[in-house]
Design brief:
CATH class of one domain: Mainly Alpha
Largest sheet: 5 strands, mixed
CATH topology of one domain: Serine Threonine Protein Phosphatase 5, Tetratricopeptide repeat
Distance between the termini: 50 Å
Strand content: 15-25%
Helix content: 40-55%
Order of helices and strands: EHEEEEHEEEEHHHHH
Structural class: alpha+beta
Shape: globular
Oligomer: single chain
Length: about 230
């Protein structure tokens, strides 16, 4: 049988909070009820999500709600979501709940690009590319960066991710390419913001800017620096 549709149903503290958040990302409300049980359905093109209200005492930070959404182009959807965040908040939401990570190659997903939206209910909406990225050669620092991304973006353990990256940046600071250093330092700054350490974020951003890179191939990483500086 073909043309099946799956709609994840995820928990939340407030369905109104979810409506506000997802409307910012370009979703529209397709169903809404408060009784007998709070429930809302939201849709953006072919992407549909449903949310049910939890009893008082529900903590988003303790939620296990998650789903995977496979898309043709993670970059295009990320930029659409980011535009909505910037329009409403003047910045990308990179720390706390809610927040959004950036599209990055996932070594634990066979090289597919992925990013996550962590919504006000603490649900992880994991956006994954349908096809893997082309294979590429990279040095030791980038290999460590990929491991840090698994810990920080897939598992949400930003402290462990930061430790992996700090060790690698110290070890490879004289042998890594400027481009590798730029990507690693941009991610290190993001991890610092998630950990509530603005001083470490500023340090990583300063080191990244000091590399003086401006070529088009560094546009994604430089854009990340702009978003992180706005978040600070």
């Amino acid at each position: 049988m073909a043309d099946e549709i799956t709609v994840p149903l995820l928990p939340c503290r407030s369905i109104d909070e979810m409506v506000e958040f997802y409307t910012m990302l370009g979703f529209t409300k397709t169903y809404y009820q408060t009784r007998p049980n709070p429930y809302v359905a939201l849709k953006r093109e072919d992407l549909e999500l449903g949310f049910f209200g939890m009893p008082e005492g529900f903590k988003p930070e303790d939620s296990y709600g998650t789903c995977v959404v496979v898309v043709p182009d993670t970059g295009a959807l990320f930029e659409a979501f980011a535009a909505g965040m910037r329009e409403k908040h003047g910045k990308l939401l990179v720390s706390g709940i809610p927040r959004m990570t950036r599209p990055r190659r996932r070594k634990n997903a066979d090289g597919h690009s992925g990013f996550a939206v962590i919504d006000p209910g603490g649900n992880w909406i994991r956006i994954m590319a349908a096809k893997p990225l082309p294979e590429e050669e990279h040095g030791r620092l980038t290999k460590s960066l990929r491991s840090a991304v698994v810990m920080g973006d897939s598992h949400g353990n930003h402290v462990r991710a930061a430790k992996i990256l700090d060790d690698a940046l110290e070890r490879d600071r004289d042998t890594a390419t400027p481009g590798e250093l730029l990507e690693a330092l941009a991610y290190r700054a993001e991890l610092a913001l998630r950990a509530g350490d603005p001083a470490a974020a500023r340090d990583a951003l300063g080191r990244a800017r000091a590399l003086g890179l401006s070529a088009p191939e560094f546009a994604d990483a430089l854009g990340a620096l702009d978003d992180l500086e706005a978040a600070l």
